[in-house]
Amino acid sequence: MSSETKSYFCVAEGCNSDERKRGRYGYMKDVRFYPFPTQKRAPALRKRWLDLLRRENYEPKRNHRVCSLHFKEGRPTENHPYPELFAYNNFKESLKMRSTTSISKREQCMVKDTQFDISVPPRVDSPAASESVLQTQINNDNSLFVAGVSGELNGSWPVNQEIEVTDHECPTVGSLSVTGTHVEMDHCYISGSFCSNDMSTRDIGIQTTLTTADIKVLEEKSTKLEDPEKLMRELFVNKVVKDDKNVQMYTGLPSKTILNGVYDILEKASPTLKYWSGQGSAAKKKYQKDSLNAKSGPKRKLSRFQEFVLTLVRLRLALTTFVMADLFGVSTSRVSQVFTTWINFMFTIFKPLLKWPSRNVLKKFMPSSFRAKFPNVNCIIDCTEFFIKKPRNPTAQSQTFSSYKHHNTYKALVGVSPSGAFSFISNLWGGNVSDRYITKESGFLDNIQPGDEIMADRGFLIRDLLLHRRAKLIIPPFTRKCSWGKGKYLSASEILRTRNIAKFRIHVERAIGRLKTFHMLSNTMPTNLKPLADQMLVICAFLCNLQKPLVKK
User: Is Zinc-finger among this UniProt entry's keywords (predicted)?
Assistant: First the structure.
C-alpha cells in the first residue's frame, strides 16, 4: 500500500503527525510515514518497534504508521532501522538562530554550505546524554547543518548524504527548511510557550543536566510526600521554634532554650498521657507501649513536642480549633483532645512550682528599691477579671456579672513578690464577688506569717483579717473630709506615702498585664473552655515567671 494514503497517522505518544494535515499545514510536506515491519518477514524488528513505542497491549492497524520525526536519520536505515526519538527519552533539538530584526533579512537567509553531516547522538537516558545531543545550527554565514533526512521507504538508505539547501525561509522554533521545503516539528518537548511559530523568538537553547534516572529519583522523592498535612505541621513547628523572637511571639516564652527546658521537664514528668475524650474516658484503656509514643487508640499523628507546641500556641494566640486543625493537619476534635489533655497535664506539673517564697528567699532577691522603702513586704496583691461569654442560666448570669466591668467575668486574686514574680494564684470566682470574700476564702491567708506586710489597693478591706495573723496591711491612706468646707483632702505626708505605695504597687498591675498577653485569658472566654479556666490561669502565671524579672535587682 502506498505511503501517501490520506488516512495515515503517527501512533507515537504525543505526536500529532497526520497525512490529512499535509494539504493544510506546510510543515507536513516533508514528513513521511513508515509502516511497521511485518510479522512474517521481520518479526524481531517489528517487536523492537512495538517495544520502543511503549504502548501496552497495542497492535498496529492498517493506517497506523511512525513518522520520520522519530528516526535519528529521518527514516529507517541500516544503522538505525527503528524509531528512537520519543517524548519519554527527553529528546530535544537545540536550535540557535541569529537574531534578525527585518522581515526581508529573514526571507533572504540562505544556506551556503551544502556539506551535510549526520551525527548520531547517544541514547538520552545514557550517562553521556547530558553532554551530547542532536543539534541544528545556523552559522553566522547563514550555513545550515541539519540533522535528519526526509526520504521515502524504498529499501535503500545511505548513512551519509549531501543535500543542497536552496532558497527557503529561515527556520522557526520546531521547524527546519530542507531542499526548498518547510519542515516543522509538530511536537516539541519543551514548554508550550516556546512551541510557537512567532518570529519574535530570536535565540533558543535547551540544556539540562538531568537524565531520565535523575528525574525518576526526584519522582520517587515526591511520592514520599504522600502526607502534605505532616509536611505542613512540621514546617509550622519549625517556624515557631526558628528563633527566640518567634518563640516569644508564638508561645510567650522568652527563648528557644527555655522552651526546650520546659518540654524536658514535662517529658520526664510522665512517660504516658491519658488523652481526654469525655468524663471517665481515660480510666480503662490499653496504651501503646513503644519508646516514643504512648496513647490509646489509633497511631499518633502528632509527636509529643508538636502537641506541646500546639497547646502553647493556642494558649498564646487564642486560635480556634479550626485554625489549629488546619495548621497541624488534624481534625478539630483532635485539637480539642490534645489541648484539654495538655492543659490538665501542665497544670498538674506547674501548680506546685508556684510557691510562696520564704523570708530568706525574699531577702536574697528583694530589689534595692523595695529594701529601702518597704523591707518587710513579701507580697503585693490585686484582683483581676477575665471576660466570659454570657451564661444561659439566669443565676449564673447574676453571679458572674461585674458591676465594675459591666460584663460577665471571672475574678481571681493574684499575688506577686517584690521582684514581680507570681507567688499566689487563687481559683476563679464569679465577677460579682468582693475582693475581701476572695481573699478570705481562697486560702491566701494561710500563707501569712507574723510580721509579714501585704501591699494592696484601697479596695482591700482586709486589715482585720491580717491582724488576726499579726500581719500588716499597707494601702494608700484614705482621704478625709475637709473641716473648712466641702471636699476631701490628704496631708502632705499622706500624699507622699500614697505616691510611694503606688510606685511599688504598679508592679502587680504590670504582672497582670503580662498574664493577659496570653489571649486565651484576655479574649472573651468561650463556654466550652470554662472547665479549663483555672488550669489555664495557673499555667500562664508559671510561664510569665519564666520571663525576665519585672523589677531590676
Answer: yes
At 371 the three-state DSSP class reads helix
Q: What is the assigned CATH class of domain 356-545?
A: alpha beta
3-state secondary structure of 429: strand
Collect the ranges in the chain with pLDDT lower than 70. Answer: 1-6, 90-210, 220-226, 270-273, 276-299, 483-486, 489
Integer Cα distance of 551 and 553 in angstroms:
6
Residues 6+ apart with CB under 8 A from 388: 400, 408, 409, 410, 524, 525, 527, 530, 533
Crossing angle for the helix pair 304-317 and 321-328, to the nearest 10 degrees: 140
Helix orientation angle between 244-251 and 256-269, rounded to the nearest 10 degrees = 60
8 A C-beta contact, residue 321 and residue 336: yes
> How far, in whole angstroms, is CA 308 from its chain's centroid?
18
Q: Which residues pair with 382 in a beta bridge?
A: 414
Q: What type of residue sits at position 473? A: L
| Helix 304-317, helix 244-251: angle, nearest 10 | 70
Contact 72, 124 (CB under 8 A): no
Q: For the chain, what are the domain ranges?
A: 1-224, 227-352, 356-545
For 370-427, the pLDDT digits (tens) are 888 888 899 999 999 999 999 999 999 999 999 999 999 999 999 999 999 999 999 9
Residue 222's CB is within 10 A of a number of other CB atoms, namely 9
Return d(Cα 136, Cα 133) in angstroms, integer.
10
CA nearest neighbour of 302 among 277, 320, 324, 280: 324
User: Are 411 and 438 in contact, with CB atoms under 8 Å apart?
Assistant: yes
pLDDT at 277: 64
How many contiguous H segments (helices) and E segments (strands) does the chain have? Answer: 17, 17
DSSP state of 257: H
Sign of the CA dihedral with 145 first, then 150, 151, and 157 last: positive
DSSP 3-state of 387? strand
- 48 CB contacts (<8 Å, ≥6 apart)? 82
Per residue in 194-223, pLDDT (tens digit) is 444 444 445 555 555 667 877 777 776 665
Write down the pTM of the prediction: 0.58
